[in-house]
Amino acid sequence: MTKIKICGITGEDEIATLNETGVDYAGFVLYEKSKRYVTVQKARQLFEKLNKDIRKVAVAVAPESELIEEIGRAGFDLLQVHGVDAAEAERIAAQTKLPVWLAVNLRDPAEVRRWRREEYHRIAGVVIDAGAYGSGKTFGWEQNGQDEMCCAVRAFREELLAEGRTFVLAGGLNAENVAEGIRIFAPDVADVSSGVETLCDGMRAKSIIRIKKFKKAVQKTEGV
Question: Which spans are transmembrane here (predicted)?
């Protein structure tokens, strides 16, 4: 079954929600420009309360060596990197003992073909995201699952799986469209953030109701 990653965890209430819903991965955004930013120290305080079977993912944008080292010491299970090319991601993976997921932002089929031409040696997985990270939008697959873009992404997925790498679908997922995303791409992991959030006192926070709906939608795809 497709596993679930809830990204952008910022508070103890959200940790309690993840523990109750029993998801597979928790993502902590270590990028200062993000509205879901937390420091490494804050993330450590949070995931000390996280169930041990939920894997902790450090999400960073073009991290410098100092941050990579700090993440490595903090107790994370994975490092997910945005804003770098494949060669830089390989260099980052060489600097850490953590498995590294490379996030790629897609705007058109040409970008998929470019990423497919890259060589992946140390990279443990690839996160397929929309054109703008954190936009809460898909790259358009829900409108036509058989178009050139989707076919190219599925081909990329097959290549990654053949190499033993993890394929993660992100960008604009929610309880209403995740089953279709799984049907089209069969990802190892469905990665969601804004799609399971709600407004609380003027602030966006992870909703236990929305996470349960998301998880139920994923579970319904099992065996399909």
Answer: none
Statement: residue 136 has pLDDT above 70:
no
Rounded CA-CA distance 13/167 in Å is 29
Distance CA 162, CA 32 (A): 36
Q: At residue 164, what is the residue type?
A: G
**Torsion angles phi and psi, residue 56, rounded to 5:** -100, 120
Question: At 176, which amino acid appears?
Answer: E
| DSSP H/E element including 102 | strand 100-105
Tokens 């497709």 -> residue: 2
In this prediction the pTM is 0.93
Question: pLDDT (tens digit, 9 = 90+) per residue, 194-217?
Answer: 999 987 766 788 999 999 999 999
Phi and psi for 141 in degrees, rounded to 5? -65, -30
Q: Give pLDDT tens digits for 31-83.
A: 999 999 999 999 999 999 999 999 999 999 999 999 999 999 999 999 999 99
